[in-house]
Prior knowledge:
Radius of gyration: 16 Å
Structural class: mainly beta
Shape: globular
Oligomer: single chain
Order of helices and strands: HEEEEEEEEHEEEE
Distance between the termini: 22 Å
Strand content: over 45%
Largest sheet: 8 strands, antiparallel
Strand order of the largest sheet: 4-3-2-1-8-7-6-5
Amino acid sequence: KRDWSSDVVLFRSRELLDHLGYEPVINLARISFPGSHSALIVRLPEGRYIADVGNGQPIYEAIPIDTPFEFTRGGLGYRFWLDDSIDKLVQDRKEHGDWKSYVWYDLEGTTEAEFEASMQRHHALPPMTFVMQNFRVVVCRPDEDLIIQLRDHELIHYRVSGKTTQEV
Length: 168
């Protein structure tokens, strides 16, 4: 899995899921500001799921919305839970042994116009998010439980044994 433009990956994934008969809905999420991230909501007979594609994280499966879900890959922890008080799915990440809320997914879907406006803010100059701030490539290798990230001049390896960083 590589971190290409998340919007291209999102649109292609939506087309594929729609072609397969799943009726995916684009939803916006907040990382740095409302609408700074997006994902797909898919309804299956067993419940609602988020397909967070093109995000550069080792998320390979659809995430259940209505039941808590947690996993660890490459030494990084991820936890998803529904916050009923704000009607959002929350993604927490484990950093330095502590859980920190990182993404808040809207659950009502969005219009094409709202998504377009969000995408324009996301790719704007001067940069409002990391997308336009840093050169970044992420490769996730599930068979090795390894995440490799090249960010500007840093090569970062995430493993169960820890994180290593070297200048390149």
